[in-house]
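Lab notes, practical 5.
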Amino acid sequence: MNGQRTKTTARLLAGLLLTVPLLAGASTLERVRSSNTLNLGYLPEFAPFSYKEGDKVQGYAIGLCEKIADKVKAELGLPELQVRYQPVTTADEISAVSSGKVDILCTPTPRTLERRKSVSYSVPIYTAGLSVVVHQDAPAPLLEVLNGKVAHTGPTWRATINHGLTNQTYVTTKGGVTEAWIRQQMRLLGVVATLITVDTTAAGLELVAEGKADAMFSERMMLRNLLDNHYPTGNLVLLERIFEYAPTAMAVPRDDEDFRLLVDNTLSEMYRSGEIEQAYDKYLEGANETTRKLFKVYALP
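Output from the prediction step:
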């Protein structure tokens, strides 16, 4: 009797062990169906794209992700599917997707080759513009350089070593493409300056407001949103110049074309129906003519 029980237990254990790699290698939709849960990752301090007010998670990217969640419910026939919002940080946003902690990163990020080693991306959902904020009392040489008014030998900042870029302190969020871009420009131009990295754009603006940094580089819409809500007196100024543009998208699991196709179908339908433009009107101060042209480019036929 004991021998028979031992054999039965061994077979059950073997069966359980065999299911582990199947679950680990399961597609996103299979995991969602099995757990009856869709995990939406987001950066909680990334307004107007994703942010939390009280108990509610909202923002431009969150609204798009909720449309994707509705598509998943319909595709899987799970009207009672649980949708959970999982906050992540800039340090772990990509690993959260690649490890399966979240099924999609709603907050848009640039599609870099390095990141594509770990994750795939949806069609673009927003074209980011790199801009800069300075204090209203910023020195004229710095303003001239940042506004592109100085004769230049460098490719992007339109400045020479001795015209406003040296002996300055710049700040940006750490670990992102903006930090990499600034370091590259400083190296190309031979600039001797200090670069401070912070966890959030808000923290960088605070350094400029306190006179501890001369300029904060970040995504333009985020900078404008923070200035409007936290610095209405005008002591900080967002310059008009946009240094770089970059299409940004939602990160999804790598090598999962079925889920990526569902996401792209949903977003493309939103582009064609005009729902994306409505989201722009609600969260991003509306779409201009150039943005509307990009809508047609980004939507897959």
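Observations recorded by the TA: The domain at 129-245 is CATH 3.40.190.10 (D-Maltodextrin-Binding Protein; domain 2). The chain has two domains: 28-126+248-287, 129-245.
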